[in-house]
Amino acid sequence: MQIHIPTPLRPYANKQAVVEVSAPTVAQALAALTSQFPELRKHLYTEEGKLRAFVNVYLNDEDIRYLDHKENAPVKDSDSLSIIPSIAGGTPVGVAPMAKAATLTPEEMGRYSRHLILPEVGEEGQLKLKAARVLCIGAGGLGAPLTMYLAAAGVGTLGIVDFDVVEASNLHRQVIHGTSDVGRAKLDSAEDSLKAINPNVKIVKFETRLTSENALKIFKDFDIVADGTDNFPTRYLVNDACVLSGIPNVYASIFRFEGQASVFATKDGPCYRCLYPEPPPPGLVPSCAEGGVLGILPGLLGIIQATEVIKLVLGQGEPLVGRLLLADTLAMRFRELKLRKNADCPVCGTHPTVTKLIDYEQFCGIPPKSAEPAAVVNGVPQMQPVELKRRMDAGEDLFVLDVREPYEFAIAQIGGHLIPLNDLPQRVRELDAGREIVVHCKAGGRSQKAAEFLTQNGFKHIHNLAGGITAWSEKVDPKVTKY
Ligand SMILES: [Zn+2]
Q1: Which end is more exposed in the chain, N or C (fewer Cβ atoms within 10 Å of the end residue's Cβ)?
Q2: Strand, coil or helix: what is 221?
Q3: pLDDT by residue (tens digit) across 319-330?
Q4: What's the pLDDT score for residue 262?
Q5: From 271, 274, 345, 441, active-site residue
Q6: Could you tell me the CATH superfamily of domain 376-475?
Q7: Catalytic residue among 136, 271, 288, 364
């Protein structure tokens, strides 16, 4: 049978997308897979040998948790198993009918004429779109096409939550912003683009980070939320706030060449936590900033989100409720998996344990930010960029080790010796264990792992550069390209 390996786990499966195994049951097929690739085992199973909570396994299109024999379900050679880790978007099921605006102006009649002649939209549907209030979390990769198409389609009120500034590295995918917008608030840049597309749309800007304190207050004035966030704490926050507010959550997420989309938190449909009760530990799933993303991918997924939003408003078609759409743009294949509402779900189940918003940073295992940066993390002293600069300028004998990938080194570097993190175990002999070494990567995560590895292997004078080359660019030398 075939086992589909998702992109984030392919490095541990000899870079293969599909592995063939022969086994009588799901559990034995997974055992055959992990005996072939022992590194994969650590990512799929806990130390007690249980499948990790942020990994789902599907036999064809069914989650194995809902099969009669679960992991011991029998399999045939023609079956396929898919490993789906969380990736750090008539009358629809359980969606209340939307309000309608009273009239369309002559200008709107002309603008929306191709909608008006579609029986599935018509004047009735266009009046619903005009009355609709849609909240988009993020004006980035997914938020750009999402808000542009919703504005063009005539959604009357678009709320956007974002507090970022446009950077040059955003432009390859965030097509709502232009080159001259670099340095501007994303909200202002997005507002200008959306008003240029359709001045009839009311834009409501929330220049803030979405938090447990403000989420319910912001959500209460909207009918639908579209989640375009790129991090797990906000994704769980959006999910829980949607469930608690009774607002559908049109979800998408992206990573490198792959995307997922679904509609969560409708009255009878599953929520994100039914799919992934717990987030992956910090650092295990790389973000787009670390792992990269094909520029067009958020375009594709953002438009899928916009399509689902419009269908929910119109009350037309079959929404992605209870279905997880998977897009693999390299193979250009779309697959669909069934999602079920989990009666034991901590937030939308029959006896919920989450009845108000919690601390999502803590839930996702992210240590609280203190005013003072941590001096030591897991036994590794942290060096601030300014301190490294001072010591380099003073001509001190420091060895700078860069554990990023060669293509990152080609974009920006601070004169470090390059050994990518994954090569470090084989190439550790290139390093002098007696010398004082400062390890850096892009943002400080990979270099922390490298520093812990070196410390465990007898190196005595290891520091991690806090915040990586990004912090160096911000605090020491802005000529070093941020990417
Ligand atoms: Zn749920």
Answers
A1: C
A2: coil
A3: 999 999 999 999
A4: 96
A5: 441
A6: Rhodanese-like domain (3.40.250.10)
A7: 288
Strand 462-465 and strand 417-418: the pairing is unpaired
Indicate if the pLDDT at residue 90 is higher than 60: no
Could you tell me the fold of the domain covering 2-85? Answer: Ubiquitin-like (UB roll) (3.10.20)
Q: Which residues contact 178 (CB under 8 A, 6 or more apart)?
A: 171, 189, 193
Q: What is the distance in A from the centroid of ligand 1 to the CA of 207?
A: 29
d(CA 190, CA 196): 10
**Can you tell me the mean pLDDT for 281-308?**
82
> Measured between alpha carbons, how far is 83 from 59 in angstroms, rounded to an integer?
9
Q: What is the pTM of this model?
A: 0.71
Among this protein's residues, is 441 annotated catalytic?
Answer: yes
pLDDT tier at 91, thresholds 50, 70, 90: very low
Candidate from 91-95, 119-123, 397-401 with smallest mean pLDDT: 91-95
CA 106 to centroid of chain Cα atoms:
41
β-partners of residue 4 are: 18, 82
Could you tell me the distance, in angstroms and rounded to a whole number, from the CA of residue 226 to the centre of ligand 1? Answer: 17
Residue 314 CA to ligand 1 center (angstroms) comes to 25
Q: What are phi and psi of 207, to 5 degrees?
A: -85, 80
Q: Where are the domains of the chain?
A: 2-85, 106-363, 376-475
Distance 82 CA to ligand 1 centre (A): 21
Phi, psi (degrees; rounded to nearest 5) at 321: -85, 130
Told to judge if 242 belongs to the known catalytic residues of this protein, a careful annotator would answer no
Question: Using only C-alpha atoms, what is the Rg of the chain?
Answer: 24
- From ligand 1's centre to the CA of 340, what distance in Å? 9
> Do the beta carbons of residue 203 and residue 155 sit within 8 Å?
no
The matching CATH number, chosen from 3.40.50.720, 3.40.50.80, 1.10.760.10, 3.40.190.10, for 106-363 is 3.40.50.720
